[in-house]
Amino acid sequence: MRELNAEHRPVPMTTQLRPVPVVIGLMTATASAFPTLAHGLATLDAFPLAGALQISPDQPGVDFDALERARAVLVQSWRNDLTPDEITVTPQGGITITWRRAGWALELIVDPFALSAFRLDSPSKMVEWTRAGSEPTIADAKAALAAMAGDNAKKAAS
């Protein structure tokens, strides 16, 4: 009879050599909180609507119209090479979307009153402007993101 404190040696279950396990990453790592458009849209969908029971002072609800306009801007101006860093609700019920890239920052505020406010910080200057309506907002978002990504410089070089 063996004692309980006796040293145990593991017993091999097989005599065949086992392959070394290899882990293969299926997704590439990204520094962005929103690596795909689906992540950005899911974040927008998670915000409570203004007037809903789950709103509180620290988690204000979002205006439905502002939410729809923010969705349209995100869908039509999405770039896989330049994804948003932040998507938040403003205290007034609007949506703020922020993009950042080496020396650049673009902040877009889609407010409940059909206005969109832009702030673009570039290495050379800072510019602020507003737009009324979705179409001009989408066009300006695309242009600002193209400038941030260096699309104009790439076209000039080729």
Write up this protein.
- With 158 residues, the chain is of the alpha+beta class.
- It has one domain (37-50, 58-157).
- The protein has four helices and five strands, in the order ααβββββαα.
- It has helices spanning 37-46, 64-77, 134-149, 151-157, and strands spanning 86-89, 95-101, 104-110, 115-121, 126-132.
- A hairpin with a 5-residue loop joins strand 1 (86-89) and strand 2.
- Helix 1 (37-46) packs antiparallel against helix 2.
- The longest helix has 16 residues, at 134-149.
- The radius of gyration is 25 Å and the shape is globular.
Labels describing this entry:
158 residues; alpha+beta; five-stranded antiparallel beta sheet; 4 helices; 5 strands; globular
TL;DR?
This protein has 158 residues and is α+β, with helices and mostly antiparallel strands. It has helices at 37-46, 64-77, 134-149, 151-157; strands spanning 86-89, 95-101, 104-110, 115-121, 126-132. The chain has one domain (37-50, 58-157).
Give the rounded overall mean pLDDT: 81
SSE order: HHEEEEEHH
Which word captures the global form?
globular
Query: How many helices in DSSP terms?
Result: 4
Tell me the helix content.
25-40%
What is the rounded distance between the termini? 83 Å
Number of strands: 5
Rg, alpha carbons: 25 Å
Let me know the largest β-sheet: 5 strands, antiparallel
Number of domains: 1
Strand content: 15-25%
Structural class: alpha+beta
Low-confidence stretches: 19-30
User: In order across it, which strands form the biggest sheet?
Assistant: 1-2-3-4-5
